[in-house]
Amino acid sequence: MIAVVGGAGQIGSWLVRCLARSGEPFRVIHRGRPSADVARFALDVHSVDLRDAVALQRALAGARVVVNCAIDKTEAPNSSRSVRNNVQACDELIRACVTNRVRRLIHLSSIAVLPPRLTPEVMARPFDYSRERDWYRRVKVATERQMFAARERLEICVIRPSHVYGPTLAWSRLALIRGWRDRVALPDPAVASRCHVVFVNDLVRLIHRWATLGTPPPPMIHAVSPEPVSWAAFYGEHAAAAGLGDPLMFCSVEELRRQSRRAQPSVARRTLRRVRASRLLDPLRTSALVRRVRTAARARASSAPPAARERLIAWPSALELEQYQSSGEFSAEESGLAPRFSYLTTFAEGCRRTAEWYNGRWAALDDTEAACVRELLRATRS
Amino acid sequence: MADDARHALSTLRRPGPVSVALIGAGNVARTYHLPCVVAAGATVSYVADPDAAARRRASAIVPAAAVVRDITDVGTEVDCAIVCSPPSEHPAHVRWLAERGIPVLCEKPLACTEKDAETLVEIARANGVALQVGYYRRFHPSSARVHTWLRDGTLGRPRRCTIVGGDILHPHGASASLMDPAQSGGGVLMDVGVHVVDRLLSWFDEITVRDYLDDHAGGMEANALARFEGRIRDHTVPLTMLLSRTADLGHQAAVEFDEGTVVCALNAGHVLTVIGPPQGAVAPSRTTVDTGEPRHATDYFADQWAEFVAQLRGESPRVSSLRDAVRTTALVEACYRMRRPLTLPWEVDGLS
Q: How far does the CA of residue A225 sit from the closest CA of chain B (Å)?
């Protein structure tokens, strides 16, 4: 039996759908309520906080393979607290797996553990971790280290997905939002700008493969489609497939760097953000005054004349600019390609499917209905 | 309905502020019902909810109310009750209240089956109490305007109506009962779809289900497509309804007439746009129709509450319709009965 920890999350819910269709016996372990995707199925679901050792032990009873897709985002504004919570949860998970004699633990990490600019030199040293300070990278690095440290006690496979795209996923939503609302500023086409992507179906097939295969998996796999995709193609094809026109705009790296520095929040603003993230302000954050100010701001935004809401330029952040200058390629072995697994979805096909989701273009609509729905969505989004 | 109202008059036991029992203190109760009831000067005497956290939050809004776990602990001296419990519990709760002569404003849907809904209407009638169902969007002025245009021929005859209702439901924001099919009675159709079906019933004389597909796989549907046929006098109109909890589709209805298309926002009661037909190479004209000042959803809940209180005082309801509330449940039930699988084109394929 396979236990999917974090089965209601972004990737976890796709894995659950995949397992539900495969007929494999599995159990979903998640904190809180199931997502709408997961609630579609009649499943063996356990609602467990990973830091609750007793409940976790019970939930893992009988599991031969555990896939860990969980990440606790509740304390995201506070990096250190977020790292501490996630490390504690992973500790409990490893302990529960060992106690329950789980045969294999597959841990979903991220390509974000590497420095953002993926050059061949960076990729030659896969354990030189990113030094970026944002909570997500810090959590992913810390938990991945934990997993590697526990390899003596348990068969562990760490999968590092690249930018996972597809219906409902954050990267595709970002591309579609920017494609609809903004002009996306990217480095000149002459600059190497490799975007490492994987379509969500391919990622869950890869996880499924290693969850069900008898032979031991490699200690680490980068889930990256071998098809070369640039950042321009990432934004451009998402927008084109969804009928959003061409949102791309190219500049020199120097210009992007200058604009990125300008767009960076000032020290005062960063301090304010940190203070806001502090728990000290909890009562104030929910006060009637704050609510009134927010409501007024929202009302102002919604009544702003259309001219004020014309396409803005999405200048990259410093981190994005680094990502946009990636040039490295993963070998077939590193990216999990093997005789019994290959990435099936081309980037164009992945974008087409994502656009079907975005545009409500579902299989059962006839042409007239689809045209009406398209018009309604255009009206909504304008 | 007139009978209901007359019976309701006799149930209003004492003058002064209306005394209310709130059954179920979840999100809708706290965000919408409580604020507008309090603002209208009513006294919330009881809050009943099995969940301690919900009771605590409600108590913070109405500290003077007696907070109890179960409906059986509610005193029968109250003038009326608002039922905001999960849909599967509506029959038991409405019955309990009606049998004690307490008029009820019940959150949508009235029940999960037509039989239960009809039984509740009968019980309310037999006990002489007012019963109203919380389809607050009926109070949207834009909806009333479309109702008029569908009948007076201002824009010609209606040809087709398409409705989309969809946004990504974040599990942390949803109430626990919403994600439990045993309590909610269904998925996106039972939750969002009932509002849409109720609106269609308010626009057309008759509605018939033609086809229904959803992606339920033993649990509760997250995406659904329903095809209906609407009839106004002797004229029939194809209706398509697309619902989703996994895609941001927005909430809009488009009614296509001979001489233009009316786009109506389902969530904002004052937003109405008329799109003229294309004139050769000239782009279609867009006209925003003035239906009054922008209002918040709470304002429409307040309108709903006002109509309910008017019923207690013996007036007939102007906007809400108990008959349509039963028909809505019947149509939803009919949809589930003729359910076909909806295959989502982006789902997992080719496990290797």
A: 16
